[in-house]
Each structure stands twice: as C-alpha cells, then as structure tokens.
Hints:
Number of helices: 14
Largest sheet: none
Oligomer: single chain
CATH superfamily of the largest domain: Tetracycline Repressor, domain 2
Radius of gyration: 19 Å
Helix content: 55-70%
Structural class: mainly alpha
Distance between the termini: 34 Å
Shape: elongated
Number of domains: 2
Strand content: under 5%
Order of helices and strands: HHHHHHHHHHHHHH
Number of strands: 0
Amino acid sequence: MNDIYKNGLASMPPLPPPLDAAFVRAAGGGGKRERTQAALIQAAVQVYAARGVGAATMQEVAQVAGVTPGTVYNHFASREALLERVGLAVAVGLCEAIAESYGEITDGAERMAIGQRRYVWLAAVSPQWVLLLLDVLNASPGVAAGLQRYPLADLRLGVKQKHFKVPSEDAAMDAINGICIQAMLRVARGAAPRNHDVAAASLVLRALGMPPAQAAEVASRPLPPLRLATPPAPASAAARRRRS
Length: 244
C-alpha cells in the first residue's frame, strides 16, 4: 500500500445519500470507458482532498485508482482536463441536486434562501467535501462560472417578483457568492455559531433589498428535503453493441 493511501486518501467521508447519488450520477459510469473515467474521478477526489488541487499529480491519481499513469492520460489529456471533469462531477452534481430540492417553489426570495442555507448545511455535515468543492472551483474558473446560473436565476426571479431591489446585478451576485462562500468556510472549519445558515441567508436577502423582518422570516422557513437522484436507465443491448 503506497504512502498516499496510508495518509488517509481512503478516508474521505461519504456525502449525504441524495448528494452522493448525484455525485455518482455526474461522474458517469455506463460503458467500460465511462466506468473507468468514473473510477479516476473518484480517485482524483481522494487525492485533491488530501493533497490540495495544486499539489496533486496524475501519478498519484493513477496510484489510488490502481491503474498506470498512461491509463489516466488516455482518458484525460492533462491535469487541467481531469480537474475540469472532477469539478463538473462534484460541483454540478451537488448544485443540481440542491436546485432540484426546491424546484417546485416559485418564490424567488425563498429559493434564494434555500440555496444559501443548503450550501452552509453541506459545510456542516460534509466539511471535507465543501473544502474540496471550493478548492476545485478556485482552480477551475470555467466550472465556477457555469454554476452562477442557479443563484442568478433566483435573483432575477426575486427582482421580477419585486422582492429584491438591486442597483447592479453584478454587485448583487458578488454579495450572494461572497456571503455564502465565507459562511461555508466558517462552518466547515468549525468556527460558526448555531443557525449560521439562517443568519447568512437572512443577510443575503437583506443585501438584496428585503426588509429585515421579512428576510428573517423567509430565511427561517423549513428546508425542503433533498431527493435521491434517479439512476440512469441501463443501456439497451443494441446501444452497447453500437458503443463497441
């Protein structure tokens, strides 16, 4: 067993079941090539979490996955390509699962509050995953930019419904992201007081123009449950033959 593995790469705790299912789904795994890529993504998660994105190497990913470095490069031409794919699996998988949990809610302010609180909640129950997520997003600006569609849609809905009044959409997004990220970091590091998710969500709503009492009430509403991801249907025999 190599030193990397002994130093705790296998100890990355599981996500809550609905989010774990979303991550597995986003990582892929239909045919043989997709299953290999999914295994490499999961190995990269372990290496990134233990080493940090900047220090991780393709050789370490290969060691943890139990394959040769050539196999890794056969699927991902560069460190950047692997990082982007991991970012998509982790960030998009988790973000889509969180967004799906409040898909039936039509109030823009409540949607914004739920999104904010879920990410802070995730930092409390899965701090290592949140620190990994933020590290990956910091190193992969393209993936981070793609995730902005979720809070941006809720912001625009809240403005349309006259819940929010913002002089600048860009400045509003800076406030949304800044408060959420700092709250996630504080919670993940164990430095936050109780109910920090509600306090942070309430502050975001106030920054977007809601009166304090109304912001506090909306931010305190019960969170909708996360849903288990529906696994993709197995490929038909004809589809498998076509891939072969």
